[in-house]
Amino acid sequence: LEGILDEEALAKSLDAVAQRHEILRTRFSLIDGQLRQVILPVLPFKLPVIELADLPESERWDEAIRIVANEAQSPYDLTTDVLWRASLLKLNPRSYMLLLTMNHLISDGWSMKVLIGDTWSLYQAFATGSTSTLPELPIQFADYAYWQRQLLDGPDGERMIAYWRKQLAG
After folding, report:
1. Tens-digit pLDDT profile for the chain (170 aa)?
2. Are 15 and 135 in contact (CB under 8 A)?
3. What does each C-alpha distance from 121 to 77, 90, 126, 131 come to in angstroms?
4. What Å distances lie between residue 101 and 22, 39, 153, CA to CA?
5. Beta strands, E only, the chain
6. What is this structure's pTM?
């Protein structure tokens, strides 16, 4: 991120995104021998800010890359952790790196686009002293997952599964 950044508005944006999307407040627990989605209540989100501007300029990028690599390798405990993390690396007063790390169970390319779009919209509102203008979500991930499970358990489910097994064979 290049330019002047309102760190408080960014933190507030990520907090609002976690409130908006239940999947960002989800962990998975074994219940009666089955993995189940457990949605946690809304909790305040803290955005850690890692100050790198104090390092010599020649070392900042290397340290940022080291932090990124460590973050990417840090595991999640599906039963106790929410499955996303964020931190902000401050390279200098006008240059930042926002790290959003998510477990593959809760995101893909399409959902990352939604997350980034929501975060940006919320940031623009909060940075100007406004409130969120995003409409309430009509469905959450759990609703979609339930619909998918019902679809697969229905009469067409076997046919769909057979199709994909054939397509992905080998």
Report:
1. 999 999 999 999 999 999 999 999 999 888 898 888 899 998 888 899 999 999 999 899 999 999 999 999 999 998 888 899 999 999 999 999 999 999 988 888 888 899 999 999 999 999 999 998 899 999 888 888 888 888 888 778 888 888 989 999 98
2. no
3. 30, 22, 9, 10
4. 16, 19, 33
5. 26-31, 34-39, 49-51, 84-92, 95-102
6. 0.84
Sign of dihedral through CA atoms 59, 60, 62, 63? positive
DSSP string, 92-139: ETTEEEEEEEE-TTT--HHHHHHHHHHHHHHHHHHHTT----PPPPS-
CA dist., res. 158 & res. 164, Å (int): 10
Tell me phi and psi for residue 37, to 5 degrees.
Answer: -80, 130
Distance (Å, whole) CA 71 – CA 137: 30
Look up residue 15 and give its DSSP letter.
H
